[in-house]
Design a protein that fits this description.
five-stranded parallel beta sheet, about 30% helix, about 250 residues, 2 domains, 9 helices, single chain, alpha/beta
Length: about 250
């Protein structure tokens, strides 16, 4: 199994009980022996040369390969532009299968996410007892509240900041909370995300971000918010447009 991200504690547990799990950075080390099956997880994050290398190896040794991917789960604008998912589908020809329903989250959270990311999306009113909403006027108050949350109940997920330039999301980020790149492939019982003042909607109804960032804020938000299995806590910060949309959905 090749994971296109950093290995986490879950992967290491699988390694201890005999699974062959490696990070994409170690790809060359594992594409040496004859293998029966390769599973590539989070494959939408592959680089073109990495996909080419895997494809050539699979054809050479005659093994099977399964790519698990979701184009919406890209974190960098460059990943979205490359659209590796389309190249994978072309390479797999007719052997392309799509999940018919959201399998990680419960129905109410899946409905909320779909409706949040497009304000023209139709939705069914449903029980929303597992979704909570809080509004704060500034980053300071948001940060105080985030620090007060029970760590046993909630996983606060932040957007991955740039290594080079200071970005607004760093003003309310909790230092020891996990960022979007650190939680690829993971899920949590309860997830907390922040919608700050730069999130908005374009003319097509799609969620956008109106400030310059190194990584894609909407891509990272989607990555973070879909980690929730049972409970979701939305912090809206100084953004009445997003507050009104959330209230409309809920």
């Amino acid at each position: 199994m090749i994971h296109c991200g950093n290995l986490n504690s879950g992967h290491r547990t699988l390694q201890k009980v005999g699974w062959s799990v490696s990070a994409i950075i170690d790809l060359d080390h594992y594409l040496k022996d004859k293998l029966d099956l390769i599973i590539v997880d989070e494959a939408q994050r592959l680089k073109i040369h990495q996909l080419k290398k895997i494809r050539e190896f699979v054809l050479k040794v005659g093994c099977k390969c399964i790519f698990s991917h979701d184009q919406r789960q890209t974190l960098a604008n460059s990943e979205a532009l490359i659209n590796i998912s389309a190249t994978i589908d072309q390479s797999c020809d007719k052997n392309v299968y799509k999940l018919s329903t959201k399998i990680r989250t419960n129905k109410e959270i899946a409905n909320f996410i779909k409706s949040l990311f497009n304000n023209k999306a139709k939705f069914d009113k449903s029980n929303t007892r597992n979704i909570q909403l809080r509004y704060f006027h500034n980053a300071s108050d948001s940060k105080k509240f985030l620090k007060s949350l029970d760590k046993e109940q909630w996983e606060v997920l932040k957007l991955t900041p740039s290594l080079y330039n200071k970005e607004f999301n760093q003003e309310y980020a909790i230092i020891n909370s996990k960022n979007s790149h650190q939680i690829i492939g993971q899920e949590f019982e309860g997830v907390v995300v922040v919608l700050d003042k730069y999130f908005s909607y374009n003319k097509n109804g799609d969620l956008i971000y109106n400030a310059r960032t190194h990584y894609s804020p909407t891509g990272m938000l989607f990555q973070n918010i879909t980690r929730a299995r049972k409970r979701l806590l939305i912090i809206v910060q100084d953004n009445e447009e997003l507050l009104n949309r959330c209230l409309q959905i809920l």
